[in-house]
Amino acid sequence: QVQLVESGGGVVHTGESLRLSCAASGFTFSGRGIHWVRQAPGKGLEWVAFIRSDGSNEHYADSVKGRFAISRDNSKRMLYLQMNSLRLEDTAVYFCASSPPGYFDYWGQGTLATVSS
Amino acid sequence: QSALTQPASVSGSPGQSITISCTGTSSDVGNYNYVSWYQQYPGKAPKLMIYDVNKRPSGVSSRFSGSKSGNTASLTISGLQAEDEADYYCCSSTGTFTYVFGTGTKVTVL
Questions:
Q1: What are the 10-residue block averages of pLDDT along chain B, 110 residues in total?
Q2: C-beta of residue A21 within 8 angstroms of C-beta of residue A7
Q3: Nearest to B29 by CA among B104, B102, B105
Q4: Are residues B78 and B12 in contact, defined by beta-carbon separation less than 8 angstroms?
Q5: Which residues of B touch A47 (CB under 8 A)?
Q6: Could you give the CA distance from residue B106 to residue B39 in angstroms, rounded to a whole number?
């Protein structure tokens, strides 16, 4: 069955960096666009970033543009999110989600990134 | 891009029908038929319930239905059950591969 498993979360200080990973299995990873979506504690969902199936195109929310970078390695079936210059407001559970055009069909369980001052 | 507007909470008795609204603008909900809805239990990942405004994925109960009129999309849950108590989020495309979520609605079964 389809599985997405995030890892790499932890506690960092403001201004520091963190790299999240998402391991995919159970579907043709190289044929799917993948997103990162985050959820601050007690808050709603926020779309963060997208990368096309072949890695040729990326899109970012304004709140992370210039600080975060999404990438993928199709040979390893892995998705990444490099988060730099972290702010307190980046504290959230980060989900990876696979995406046919228009929606998110499969989600991982999430990994928590905490930014402290 | 501002979050789509949803009521903070909606409640109903078992067996009743409830409707959750999701109001956006002509730049998102009003411009694309890529509106989807997600159910989320506390501490869990969201689950896709409706996509492309009114389509149900395999395995999702027919009690869930979606619609859209202008800049507002809606999710209706008919025959409300205790297991429907959860948070619900709408989502709309805002352009090529970019999205915005709703503010979220907590559904309570009385």
A1: 95 97 96 97 97 97 98 98 98 93 98
A2: yes
A3: B102
A4: no
A5: 91, 98-101
A6: 10
